[in-house]
Write a structure and sequence with these properties.
Layout: H1 2-16, E1 22-30, E2 35-41, E3 46-69, E4 74-102, E5 105-114, E6 117-124, E7 127-128, H2 130-137, E8 139-155, E9 158-183, E10 188-202, E11 205-214
Antiparallel strand pairs: 1-2, 1-11, 2-3, 3-4, 4-5, 4-6, 5-8, 6-7, 8-9, 9-10, 9-11
């Protein structure tokens, strides 16, 4: 279902580029990530757009001291270091529909779909953790937003807007690996395949303030 909606939005956006209208560009800031969008104002009511958000994080933990090494039977100095770096790229596509105009104020509804992409790396003492690398590949995410907002037009080319709405995020993790267990009926270890299937849905509200340019 989400794939069909995404294709529909893309088709609408591409089609409207051929119509007579205005391009639009905007940046917004609020609870969550800052974002930017580029759209096309088809007429006085409809603005299809594409947008982008980005998040980068780095973490480093280092521990050093002394401990007893049982292999050599003496106290030694040690240093352990764990490093994490990761990025989330969030392209999205949506549409803004103006429902009411009063003087310089215009109210609108907005709907968008997004497909977050994750890139992450974990290193332990300078060596990359291959298990973590494979686990990241098994994470799938998609999201959407539905909001109500108002824009105040200082003139026909510039507006200040505020929006409030509901955000949905779906995260899925699926992984399989080989394992074994002891079977008392046969007295032997038996091979088996373990499957992990984790699903998470988040539905927080959001609010943001935006600067919008029409040209």
């Amino acid at each position: 279902m989400k794939t069909k909606l995404l294709v529909l939005f893309i088709a609408v956006f591409v089609f409207t580029i051929k119509s007579n209208g205005q391009f639009s560009f905007g940046v917004s800031s609020g609870i969550g990530l800052n974002s930017a969008y580029f759209g096309y104002k088809v007429n006085s009511k409809i603005v299809p757009y594409i947008g982008f958000q980005y998040l980068n994080a780095k973490f480093k933990y280092e521990e050093s001291g002394e401990r007893y090494d049982y292999d050599i039977g003496q106290v030694i100095s040690y240093s352990d270091m764990t490093e994490f770096s990761g990025s989330i790229y969030i392209p999205n596509i949506g549409v803004k529909y103006f429902i009411k105009q009063h003087n310089k104020i215009q109210a609108y509804l907005s709907l968008s779909l997004s497909k977050p992409l994750i890139s992450a790396k974990l290193k332990v003492d300078g060596e990359e953790d291959e298990d973590f690398k494979e686990s990241i590949k098994n994470v799938s995410m998609w999201g959407g937003e539905f909001g109500f907002g108002v824009e105040y037009f200082f003139d026909e080319n510039f507006s200040l807007g505020g929006e409030f709405g509901l955000r949905h995020l779906h995260v899925k993790y699926n992984d399989t690996y080989d394992s074994e267990f002891y079977n008392p009926d046969t007295g032997n270890d038996q091979d088996t395949e373990i499957e992990n299937d984790i699903k998470l849905n988040l539905n927080p509200t959001f609010s943001k303030i935006s600067l919008n340019y029409y040209f």
